[in-house]
Amino acid sequence: MARKAHRTGGYPGADPLGFHPEDRRDAARRSRIEVLFDEQIMLGSLFGEFDANLVQIENRLGVFIAARGNRVVIEGTQDDVARARQVLTAMHERMLSGQVMDAGVIESLIGMSNEPVLEGIITGDAKGPPVAIRTRRKTIVPRTAMQADYMRALASRDIIFALGPAGTGKTYVAVAQAVSQLITGSVQRLILSRPAVEAGERLGFLPGDMKEKVDPYLRPLYDALYDCLPAEQVERRIASGEIEIAPIAFMRGRTLADAFIILDEAQNTTREQMKMFLTRFGQNSRMVVCGDPRQVDIPGGVNASGLADAVTRLEGVEGINVTRFAASDVVRHPIVGRIVEAYEGEGAA
Q1: Is 14 within a domain?
Q2: What does the pLDDT look like over 232-251, one tens digit per residue?
Q3: Of 193, 180, 189, 200, whose CA–CA distance to 139 is shortest?
Q4: What is the rounded distance in angstroms from the CA atom of residue 344 to the CA atom of residue 126?
Q5: Are 15 and 24 in contact (CB under 8 A)?
Q6: Does 171 fall in a domain?
Q7: CB 121 within 8 Å of CB 128
Q8: 52, 83, 88, 224: which has the fewest Cβ within 10 Å?
């Protein structure tokens, strides 16, 4: 039930906190709670311009929210009220840590509010401290419960397979973790790779030298890097060899020690390429293999994919983690998740 822009002053005939009398029907099934925030200077950003953030929560969870000063009252069904309170508290905690609120972050928190781990992600729980990755340009926090598990695996496992649809943060979060470890000196090099395979197109011969030919295939990796490091640092580290971005064919014959290694679009590797890549693993290294098994662009489809073959062989092996994302973990615009679900439903039919 979509609502118009929220107003802290309330509705005509409303009670002092702004609830319309008609909103109190079915009172026996409804719940009402109050939330108090101490840092009043942050409330404008927390609520959003014209209380747009509160409106977003109202529309998505079917609750009514009234704010006056640092006092927020939430009314609705018991479960929805509890979720709304959790979302508001999580927004406040993230703002305290320096994160900027926008519609995408709020949407992800609303999605996570169904998960029992949201509070632990924000404040820390039995699994460890709050989950976050800090880079020079920003602090990345998980937007879904699966992303939280993925971040924990990135910090502790040797080889991680990240499987799932586009928009779930598989590559972006891995690049952020790699940059964080490069900054702290945990690794000496960052190596980013992906197969140079066209997505259902035939682009013909590309002009330029080798770098100019392969760079278009590696553009998503550059984009993630520039989001985590200032541009001049990216260029300097690439020039010095601290950051290497290359197609998978350039990995043959090497041993990659003291490095954080990421293979993107791994579903487009052959079995032979995947075996070659995995066996490059060296001392004090970490390797992340990202891909969507449903989006194979090499001849033969899934049956020829080195990613599917590797997961089948290696899942359960000590030191190896497999994280599987679903359409519900998509953190781009909400419509992307619905598109993914529609196509996955078609594939399953």
Answers
A1: no
A2: 999 999 999 999 988 888 88
A3: 180
A4: 34
A5: no
A6: yes
A7: no
A8: 52
Q: Which amino acid is at 137?
A: R
Share of the chain above pLDDT 90, in %: 35
144 and 57 both lie in a single domain: no
Q: Is 94 in the same domain as 172?
A: no
pLDDT tens profile 77-136 = 888 898 899 889 888 887 887 777 888 778 778 877 765 444 444 444 444 445 778 888
3-state helix, strand, coil in the chain (%, to 5): 45, 15, 35
CB 71 within 8 A of CB 47: no
256 and 321 assigned to the same domain: yes
Pairing outcome for strands 159-163 and 320-324:
parallel
pLDDT in tens, 134-181: 888 777 778 778 888 899 999 889 999 999 988 888 999 999 999 999
Q: What range does the domain containing 60 cover? A: 21-118
**CATH assignment of the domain containing 148:** 3.40.50.300
Q: What global pTM score does this model have? A: 0.67
Last residue of a domain, one of 118, 149, 168: 118
**Do the beta carbons of residue 135 and residue 183 sit within 8 Å?**
yes
